[in-house]
Each structure stands twice: as C-alpha cells, then as structure tokens.
Design a protein that fits this description.
The structure is a single chain. The chain has 299 residues and is α/β, with parallel strands linked by helices. It has 2 domains: 179 residues, Alpha-D-Glucose-1,6-Bisphosphate, Chain A, domain 3 (3-Layer(aba) Sandwich), CATH 3.40.120.10; 105 residues, Alpha-D-Glucose-1,6-Bisphosphate, subunit A, domain 3 (Alpha-D-Glucose-1,6-Bisphosphate, Chain A, domain 3). The chain is built from 9 helices and 14 strands. The chain has a 7-stranded mixed beta sheet with strand order 2-6-5-3-4-9-8, with helices on both faces. It has a 5-stranded mixed beta sheet with strand order 11-10-12-13-14.
Length: 299
C-alpha cells in the first residue's frame, strides 16, 4: 500500500510534559497539528520499524478520530503491530499494564486527564515508554526538538477501521488488534488483591461500595470488576458510561466535582467505601462513611 508523504510546517507550542501535550480541541483539530506531534514522537523513538505499540484513550471528544489518524500514521511509519482498546478506550493504568504484559515498545494514551471534554474543551496525548510509565524528560525534550523542525509526516490513504469489533485487521503491512480494554487489567488486579476475600465481604454485608466513574474511562472497569466479578450490586457503580463530554461534568475526583459521591457518603446509611476517579483513571478520591481522603495517584 502506498505511503503518503504530507508536507507541513512546525508548530511552536508542542512542548510536552510528563503528562503529554494538552490543548483545546480547536487547537488539535487544526490541519496537521496532531499529525505533526505524532510524527515527532515516532522520530524521537530510538527504534520504530518492527515495533509493537498500544493505543487507547479516555473516550473524550476527538478520541476516536485521533485514534484513526494515529493508526494510519503508525502503519506508514513501519510499526509492526498496534494493540488498540475496543472503542479506542483504555485507562492509563490499563495501558501501562498492557504495555508491560505484552512487551510492547510503548503506547499512545489519548487523554487530558481531569480536564473537561467536548468540542470546545480539552484534548491531550501522551506517550508511555516500554516500562509502562510516562516518557522521561529526555524523550519528551527530543519530541519537542523534532516538532520545531518537522517539514513532513507519513500516513496511509486508507478507510477508517471498525474500532468496536474485537479481532485483528491489517492496515497496510501493520496488524491492528482490537482488544478488550478491561480483560488484562482485571487479571492484574486479581493477582494483586484477594478477590475471594472481597467477594465474601460483599456477600456478608461487611463491605459495601459506591463508585462514581464521572462518565469517564473507569466506568467499564468498575462494572466488570466490582459488579460482574466481585458481586457488588449494579447500583454500586454510577455514571459508568464514558461520554465524550463526561455528561457535562468535570472528571476531577474532588469534593466539588464529585459532590454526588460526597453527599452519598455523608448519609446515615452510607456504604463503607466510596471512590471516584479522574478522566483517564490514574487519580482517585477515596472516601469512607463521613470520611474524606485527599485525591491521589492510583496504585
């Protein structure tokens, strides 16, 4: 399949931090803006051809469109295999898990974390390296230096793929595998925590849970693990469907933006454990009955 070279000009505002590049959607949707950054990431990698990468995001506005762009560019740049979360969804902890489990060379995570989503709100992209963690400063500096001189990027002229259908498809010479975004993370959690003990406590009533996903990425994970695997009642997980605008809310797990959970946990019949998480699922607020813990990073 013919690789297309597109001419472009550098943008002067593409310096990423360890949390990647975050801008308004209107900035990312400028012609060539996302493509320039992605090409710069590819060219900053010490090795690219024949690699395996991971791709997914928090489901915010522009997530699916950006994923299709990255898929075509990855194929054009010689990536061998791309593991993509179904629906282009992956929490940041799940992406890290998948990178490490399958020995991938890194991965793109599409998220602006706790920032709001929507056509006039925020979008972001970050790259995690082969240890599953955020790109170190030396790598992000290399990306930025490349963005300042980039004159072309590579892509394929191919139709969008079905991001919702599990299984493998070919894009050029690259294999794209659409994977269950929860399965591997669920298996890791079962290795780390005593699921049998938690399930027994839920059944006995000595443990009760209220989890607010804030219409962000962790809803499917909470439903699968807390409800389907551990047996918590379905109503224990609320706002569980990821929405492009997070339901008009702000996916920041604190007493202001997760006030519904805070109010629930102050009731006389409050459950023993409450929690909410941010847009990409790597920061949480934990609560007990009438008790608040400052939001912090995930384990």
């Amino acid at each position: 399949m013919q690789i297309t070279t597109r001419e472009t000009q550098p943008f002067n505002d593409q310096k990423p931090g360890t949390s990647g590049l975050r801008k308004k959607v209107e900035v990312f949707t400028q012609p060539h803006y996302l493509e320039n950054f992605v090409q710069s990431v590819f060219e900053a990698m010490p090795k690219l051809k024949g690699t395996t990468l991971v791709l997914g995001g928090d489901g915010r506005y522009y997530n699916r469109t950006a994923a299709q762009i990255i898929i075509r560019m990855a194929a054009a740049n010689g990536v061998s295999k791309l593991l993509v979360g179904q629906g282009a969804l992956l929490s940041t902890p799940a992406a890290s898990c998948i990178i490490r489990k399958y020995g991938a060379d890194g991965g793109f995570i599409l998220s602006a974390s706790h920032n709001p989503g929507g056509p006039h709100e925020d979008f972001g992209i970050k790259f995690n390296t082969d240890n599953g963690g955020p790109a170190p400063e030396g790598f992000t500096n290399a990306i930025f230096e490349r963005t300042k001189t980039l004159q072309r990027y590579f892509t394929l002229e191919t139709p969008d793929i079905d991001l919702d259908r599990l299984g493998s498809v070919s894009v050029g010479e690259m294999t794209v595998e659409i994977i269950d975004p929860v399965k591997d993370y669920e298996a890791l959690m079962e290795q780390l925590f005593d699921f049998d003990a938690i399930q027994a406590a839920l059944r006995a009533g000595s443990l009760s849970i209220r989890f607010d996903a804030l219409h962000a990425i962790t809803g499917p994970y909470a439903k699968r693990i807390l409800v389907e695997r551990l047996g918590a009642p379905a109503e224990a997980v609320v706002n569980a469907v990821p929405l492009e605008d997070f339901g008009g809310g702000h996916p920041d797990p604190n007493l202001v933006h997760a006030h519904e959970l805070a109010e629930w946990m102050s009731r006389p019949d409050a459950p023993t454990l409450g929690a909410a998480s941010d847009g990409d699922g790597d920061r949480n607020m934990i609560m007990g009955a009438g008790f608040f813990v400052t939001p912090s990073d995930s384990l």
